[in-house]
Amino acid sequence: MTQSPTAPAVPAVPAMLFDTGLVTDTSLSIAHGPSAEPTRVLTRFEDWAGRTPQAPAVIDRAQIWTYQDLDAAAALVAADLADRVRPGDLVGVCLDRSTALVVTAVALARLGAVYLPLGPRPGERRIQAVTEDLDVACLVGDPDVLPAEHRGGEHFPLLLPTDGVNAPAAAVAAFSDSVRGTRRAPEGALYAVLTSGSTGRPKAVAVAESSLSVALDWYRAETGLAPGDRQSLLIGVAFDPHLLELWAALTSGAALVPAPDDTRWDSHVLTDWWRDTALTHAVAATPTVEPLLDRPWPQDLKLRHLVVGGDRMRRRPAADVTATVHNAYGPAEATVVTTTHTMRGTDPEAGDQAPPPIGTALPGVTLVVTDVEGRPVARGQEGELRVGGHCLALGYLDPELTARRFTAPPQELALPAVDRLYRTGDRVRMNADGSLDFLGRLDDQVKISGVRIEPVEVEAAFEQDPRVRTAVVTVLRDSSGHGRLVAHVRPADGAEPPAGDLLAAVRAWLPEQAVPTAVRIVDGFPLDANGKVDRPALAAQAQSGSQATVPPRSTTTGDLADDLTAATATATERLVLTTVRELLGRPGTGLGDNFTDAGGTSMVAARLLATVERETGVRLRAPELLRSTDLRAFAALLDQRRTPRPEGA
Questions:
Q1: What CA–CA distance (Å, rounded) separates 89 from 117?
Q2: Closest of 449, 456, 442 to residue 487, by C-alpha
Q3: Which residue has the higher pLDDT, 92 or 529?
Q4: Distances from the Cα of 253 to the Cαs of 31, 66, 194, 262, in angstroms?
Q5: What pTM does this model have?
Q6: H-state helical runs in 32-123
């Protein structure tokens, strides 16, 4: 919906709104968050632009965009698009975390168009599937990286910033009539995001402004985000939590700080960035943050609040963590955040190795844990989580899918003001205080030798061993469809547990059918574009012929003899090649291979750089690895950095 820039300012949300506590049923697994009243998102930004026009809205390295600057830039872009983009139109945004992205988001909200984030370099097949299914009016991005159908179509230049962090070289609105689907966003949608589809094609879920506003009101009240604070813009653009970051700052009078790309590759770089930018508030994916919890917490940060989510958190922050950490849970269908559990270094449980709960319901959220028939189970029993309330999305752009996943509550279940429940597919347990423990995905269950197995249960069994830091279990299937379990184990610091010992230990915890047939020792896990552990990539590494057990840093010179490029390799080349082979689980990798083409990911890069620094004392950055044509060139750069230059050179 289009909002007038002259609309009256929305008053601050009263603190009492969030102080009412949980309304709970003490016997059934039903819990209600405090009451909430939806507000207006764009109007709050425009209110700050009018009240504090010279306050920083985006801090982009050395350049500061004030609220007045941002408001004016968004107005120009909205004016350029007004003749071609109507209220309710889907606009695919192919931009990275940047000032240009922020300007575009505000401009589309002003037009009443639906913001559809696709990431800076969307895959050709993925975009083709999206545009075949959805009525996408245009794509906004750098014309050189747009899909073929839109590179050759009609382009309108846009006055978007082309300087700064992750900025596009140029920006256009690209129109194409060659591929255009029929599904439009439902009325009232502010944005739509893509989620994984069981058919292999992404599905889009649309969210209303009112639903996002409730999450933003919670974020401001919980974290105290206010003028003078600095909020990260770190999450990948195709992942919906970046909308929480973006609009939380702009509706609080705070400043957004776009994150350079290498902050996702190296946890040291991430904390350096937090320090250098004086960030006070950050949102990050759980696998990105967990390595930080394995070492002493930097004591010179201004970071006060850190919201983590997207994957199961496996331990609590230690007592030295000075930021308040919020373990957040929420599917895109329930508007980014549904429950949270707050942890501080002063908590008695600080440092516990047990996974923390995913917390209690946010304002306006209703939680129901049900059996297979949709009936609430007793507290303490396991079941499927269903969510209702202000947080719910409008639905998928596929009405049939919406009808299957967003269902009416049972008539006998009295849920005031809740007319729909979303089936999350997540297996949880509700505790006596209304908090939830996350137990895994219902659809992650697999049948091995006729027995249903929950991979998360197998992972937890490995993690009982003090020699194991983290375990991830995947399923490999043969041509007949028979499955076997493979455990990918990241050891604790200094530990090198034999695979056979680990298997013997888990037999005490698991039925025989649930004991994996193989263990792969890894230094880290690949992450997908959303910062989650990429389980398909792990399974592919195991399936591609990599060794069942790969002891860390145990490859010897003799092991490389079959690689002709390694026979005459320098010591540095051997270090790089050995480490990459171990991290990727691919013994056939050669010095002439490009790191990314060989399967390198952000997590693998972080581990490679850490190993190189530990073994040589030279600290290289992720872009230097990515710019290297192959592993030999990367090794040469490493030699150059650690070889003293001749005097006078």
A1: 13
A2: 456
A3: 92
A4: 33, 10, 29, 27
A5: 0.76
A6: 41-51, 67-81, 99-111
